[in-house]
Design brief:
single chain, alpha/beta, OB fold (Dihydrolipoamide Acetyltransferase, E2P), binds adenosine-5'-diphosphate, binds magnesium ion
Length: 701
């Protein structure tokens, strides 16, 4: 994927190792490692270079227990005071450490007998992990540890240690060694050493080196804050690559003919006559914008932004109806099976009276049913189709697809949009409508989705019962639990959301599991479900479905519930350690309740004590309900970084840039992107391949 001089392997002897060689040619990368790395979308030696650290660990000094701060990471050395295995719903090993009367509690969920036996009182241990507040003071969950001799010098690192996104079957040290080999090879790569027009300063290769292997002369403070020139260089490169890619995509698509759909106003009238409500002014305005696009001879490329609950689906339904009535097909893609089902149910209730039966193509169908479905789609008999993104990545053919609607844009990167390009009948390209509830300011949306025109639904339907939000400290936790119990016994349903404590999904999932166990202990008569990111797709869907169907009354969840499932009976949400969330993330979460007619509550539980700053933030969270205003406040209060959340940035396919945090860099790159497209087409292709990937590969799926 990296530009390079192609060296063909010699017919005899070992092939010359280059950046485009398969990973398996590296020392220490057997077939098993290669398959683990494939899980991270790493295939060639060159791919490793752009697998960038999520963050750094600082193991350069020991922190005394007295100086430990919650939320930080630290290397500590202390004596084992006591260790015991606690049985109960979940077996765990608890180890209390002591240092001059200061304590730290370690929790282990996975351990064997010999590990347990090693924790004898008085023994000296060195531990690295992130510090969090527990009921009885500070603790670490599953820290790394090693035993040390009393008089041994501390084993400290000379440099910051990069921490990479990982997958099962690969470890940090092993990945670091492989990346080191790739960097050594990269010094001979022509493209990486090439200067790029308009991007001065540090070169690509030096930047990569500083980021992967920080040295003595590296400004570590800048590196930790993502402010290092090396990081800034790569951020600008990546943003430029994405601008280039989106522009090219738009140019290519807008060159093609699209089906002319002029029936939107008729469809609007037909549907409105049947709806139990009137469309809001904002919905009407967006429909006017769609009508103009769909009448045109070129494919529509439009983003429809609107807060959770603003009624995007019905707007999309009008456009889909217009396509169906003119003898074309329309498809709606959702990020999960459950959301697809929900959309289909809504569409059916609206469209059936008009003689249209939307077809759900689900991963849950048996092969025979699925084939029958696919057949109806291929023949054109199915005019309106609903399914998940995954379903459409398989080879599904349409007879005359004219409109593609994509729900929940923030899960959907430029790569996926490329894949949509070629789904239409030969000779014409479908219109695209992307729906997003991510409340980002309009100007930002325009740069983030440079290939899309933007419409905004900036008004909620009337008569919504506002969500009452209260902010409570953890000492009130038991009271909150009791209130939740009473509400559930009264027929209501509630979410209990556990916020991120780590990028590590495993640890986060464990924390949620522990919370669920504690709640089950405290509320034994309640049916309590659990959903987190470590569950397999089906298990996750099943947990959500049980909750939606009312089989479970309380759902303990990590932030995976953030995206769009509608459970109207759920009217209470507790957010544990709410101080950890960005405002927008919180807003999205809170949008899960307040969907029914019942007055809803949201309880923000926070960790004592709060800084004045954190208090101000929570106050905004309590009082603000407008998504876009929240996004603005978020930018102002937290600084740009947290708006979309790191995970979402990953989901839209960025490796190092964060379109919100780095917003001010985007503006100046736009003229540069235009300049490159005109004068440096080869470099443009090279940069897109480097950062976005093999665009043609996405186009083929
Ligand atoms: P979102 O924009 O979050 O996807 P939905 O499309 O799911 O929102 O709409 C939320 C709910 O509001 C749905 O039950 C929908 O039927 C209803 N709704 C949509 N538009 C209106 C309106 N103009 N008046 C009243 N209810 C509406
Ligand atoms: Mg929705």
């Amino acid at each position: 994927m990296i530009g390079h001089e192609l060296r063909r392997p010699h017919a005899q002897g070992a092939p010359a190792l280059t950046l485009s060689s398969e990973l398996t040619f590296l020392k220490g990368a057997g077939p098993q490692a290669a398959s683990a790395l494939r899980g991270l979308d790493l295939h060639t030696v060159g791919d490793l270079l752009f697998h960038l650290p999520l963050r750094y660990e600082d193991r350069r000094r020991l922190t005394p227990l007295a100086e430990l701060r919650e939320g930080s990471e630290a290397l500590v050395r202390a004596r084992v005071e006591v260790a015991e295995v606690r049985f109960g719903p979940r077996r765990m090993l608890l180890v209390a450490l002591d240092q001059d009367g200061r304590g730290l509690l370690l929790r282990f969920f996975h351990f064997n007998e010999s590990q347990r036996a090693g924790f004898t009182p008085g023994r000296l241990i060195q531990v690295f992990g992130s510090v969090r507040g527990g009921r009885n003071g500070l603790e670490m969950v599953h820290p790394e540890y090693q035993w040390v001799e009393a008089d041994a010098a501390p084993a400290l690192d000379a440099h910051l240690t990069p921490v990479y996104p990982l997958t099962a079957g690969m470890t940090q040290p092993r990945l670091r060694r492989l990346i080191g080999q790739a960097l050594d090879l990269a010094t001979r790569d022509a493209a990486l050493n090439q200067a790029l027009p308009g991007l001065d300063g540090l070169g690509t290769l030096d930047a990569l080196d500083a980021i992967h292997r920080p040295g003595d002369d590296t400004d570590t403070r800048a590196l930790l804050a993502l402010r290092h020139p090396a990081q800034q260089r790569l951020i600008r490169e990546e943003l430029l690559a994405h601008q280039l890619c989106m522009r090219l995509l738009r140019l290519q698509i807008r060159e093609r003919p699209a089906p002319v759909l002029d029936g939107l106003d008729d469809a609007r009238q037909a549907l409105c006559a049947l709806l139990p409500f009137d469309l809001t002014g904002a919905q009407q305005r967006v429909l006017d914008e769609l009508a103009v696009d769909l009448r045109g001879p070129r494919p529509m490329l439009r983003l429809m932004q609107g807060d959770v609950g603003s009624g995007k689906t019905v707007v999309a339904a009008v456009a889909m109806l217009a396509a169906a009535r003119s003898g074309h097909q329309a498809v709606l893609m959702a990020p999960t099976e459950l959301l697809a089902e929900q959309h289909q149910a809504n569409l059916r209730s609206w469209l059936q009276p008009l003689g249209i039966e939307p077809v759900l193509i689900s991963g849950r169908l048996r092969k025979r049913e699925r084939d029958a479905c696919a057949e109806r789609i291929a023949s054109g008999e199915a005019a309106i189709v609903v399914g998940t993104h995954a379903v459409f990545q398989t080879s599904l053919r349409f007879a005359h697809l004219a409109l593609v609607v994509v729900d929940e844009q923030h899960r959907f990167g430029v790569q996926q949009r490329i894949a949509l390009r070629d789904k239409g009948p030969s000779g014409s390209t479908p219109h695209q409508l992307v729906m997003s509830a991510t409340p980002i300011p309009r100007t930002l949306a325009q740069t983030l989705y440079a290939d899309l025109d933007v419409s905004v639904i900036d008004q909620l339907p009337p008569g919504r019962t506002p969500i009452a939000t209260v902010v409570l400290g953890q000492p009130r936790r038991d009271q909150v639990i009791a209130r939740i119990g009473a509400a559930c016994r009264d027929g209501r349903q509630a979410y209990w959301v556990c916020t991120l404590i780590d990028e590590n999904e495993e640890i986060e999932a464990q924390a949620a599991a522990v919370t669920a166990e504690k709640l089950r202990e405290a509320l034994q008569d309640l049916r309590i479900g659990l959903v987190h990111g470590r569950l397999r797709g089906e298990a996750k869907e099943a947990a959500m479905r049980d909750f939606k169907d009312g089989h479970t009354q309380l759902l303990v969840a990590t932030t995976v519930i953030e995206v769009g499932v509608d459970v109207p009976n759920a009217s209470i949400m507790v957010i544990d350690n709410a101080e950890r969330l960005g405002l927008s993330q919180l807003h999205q979460l809170r949008g899960r309740v307040g969907r029914g007619s019942r007055a809803s509550q949201c309880v923000l539980l926070y960790q004592h004590p709060l800084s004045a700053d954190a208090r101000a933030r929570l106050e905004v969270r309590r009082t603000t309900t407008d998504g876009v205003r929240i996004a603005q406040a978020d930018l102002e209060l937290r600084g740009p970084g947290e708006l979309l959340g790191r995970r979402q940035t990953g989901l839209i396919g960025l490796k190092i840039a964060d379109p919100v945090r780095d917003a001010e860099l985007i503006g100046p790159l736009q003229p540069l992107a235009d300049h490159w497209l005109q004068h440096h087409p080869a470099e443009s292709q090279m940069l897109i391949r480097r950062w976005v990937g093999d665009v043609e590969r996405y186009a083929r799926v």
